[in-house]
Fold this sequence. Notes:
Elements (H helix, E strand, L loop, with lengths): L2 H27 L37 E4 L5 H5 L6 E4 L6 H10 L5 E4 L7 H12 L3 E5 L2 H11 L5 E2 L6 E3 L15 E2 L7 E3 L7 E7 L2 E9 L2 E6 L11 H10 L2
Parallel strand pairs: 1-2, 1-3, 3-4, 4-11
Antiparallel strand pairs: 5-8, 6-7, 6-9, 8-10, 9-10, 10-11
Amino acid sequence: MSLSQTSQTEKVLRVSLCLLALCLAAFNLAPSSSGEENKPQSDATSVAYFTIPENQHWDAQNRYVDSIFIDSGAPVQQLRRHHYAVQFVPLPVHFGDQSLRVALWDHPKVPAAVLTSPPGFTELGRKDFLAWVGSGRNVVFTGGYATLSAMNALFGFELEYVPYREGPYWRNDRNVGGTPFQYGPARIEETGAAYGVKIDSIPLTGYSMYDTNRDSLVFYIKYNKGIVCYVGASFGDLDEADPWGAVLRAAVRM
């Protein structure tokens, strides 16, 4: 082979290598065809509703409800603590079917209700209220035997009342994950009258949030798309800053 032919061959090889390098670079820079570019980004906008960043306070303003249905005995000061913009809408639970239906229909964006005494629903009022809860709303009952009996009558539960259980009551860390109770007080004291149920009587769709031994003082039960909560304290004599108030606000946010 002559010198000129060798030189020409080397030039061809160099050009071929350059083209190969350019092809490899273009292949690496091309978007993937596996669909990964269409995957949602794991930023704050894709976090599930019930999760809260670790560095955010559990009772942050943007996590609370805007409005709450209440009966005449609702602990307004505890419900409003740290959330002074919340609106309270009276729920006529003792004034006939029409008044109840008008209240529910006229305020479709109210997500929660707090009841401190047994509601005096007729059969039609009961059906309206069950439909309201089951469509994705949340009702929180407080108090003792009377409200537990009302829960059984309204929703068909078989909750077994415990007349007295000495405190303190501990947060059940096996169940609170992914709920507002996760960031609540680790324990609540017996600062007033407290009423619970036997844990075994809570339906399979329910979970105890605070309990002692085999008795639950705070729990929730799924009802269709909605939630039924129970906070076993009488708030009439409790201080506004009592930890029971934090537990009540967590229940409202379920």
